Amino acid sequence: MSLKCILLLLFMSANWCGILAQTVTSSKSTTDALNSILNDDDKAGDQGDPNGDRDANGDGKGGGKGNGSGTGVGNYQLAGRKVIAKPQPRYTCNEQGTVVVEISVDQNGRVISATPGVRGTTNSAKCLLDQAKQAALNTKFDSSDAAPEKQVGKIIYNFRLTE
User: Is 46 inside a domain boundary?
Assistant: First the structure.
């Protein structure tokens, strides 16, 4: 039986082999690959470290240091209002990234609600979210009688580890 027929037998019933074998052509690399499989010639492959141990496990060791310090600089966005008190978030963990806090501000300039971790946040570690929310709730904007009762804006905190 030809190699073409063997290939076709893998995918089709024997009845189709004689009819379709005439239309199938195989390249030299395909033929070589199939011959290698069919003849089980025990040739080694060309991947991996020739001196490696296929049954080896990693040692599980790794590096890293803790106890970071950093800053949380804010970007205050509330249309038509100026920020008058900008409390910095406390830095309590070894994490960095951006935390976006959606805020609602009353006409007196007081932040009445804060939701950290909204769209644009790049690190949602609880320690960053908690500190960003606390700082946002303590932020104060100028008062405005022309502002809506509840004005929505955002504060973007960029937490960065420092040495």
Answer: no
Q: Is residue 99 part of a domain?
A: yes
Contact present, 136 and 75 (Cβ < 8 Å):
no
Separation CA 76–CA 142 (nearest Å): 12
Residue 163 C-alpha from the chain's centroid: 25
Q: Which residue has the higher pLDDT, 51 or 98?
A: 98
Domains of the chain: total: 2
> Domain for residue 143, yes or no?
yes
Q: Is the residue at 74 inside a domain?
A: yes
Cβ contacts of residue 147 below 8 Å, gap of 6+? 80, 81, 105, 107
> Position 107: which residue type?
Q
Buried b (16+ CB within 10 A) or exposed e, 61-90: eeeeeeebebebebebebeebebeeeeebe
The residue written with tokens 């950290």 in the block is 116
Judge if 91 and 153 occupy the same domain. Answer: yes
Q: What is the reported pTM?
A: 0.55
Q: What angle in degrees, to the nearest 10, is found between the helix axes of 3-11 and 28-39?
A: 80
pLDDT in tens, 148-161: 999 999 999 999 88
Cα(68)–Cα(130) distance, rounded to whole angstroms?
A: 17
Residues 99 and 146 in one domain: yes
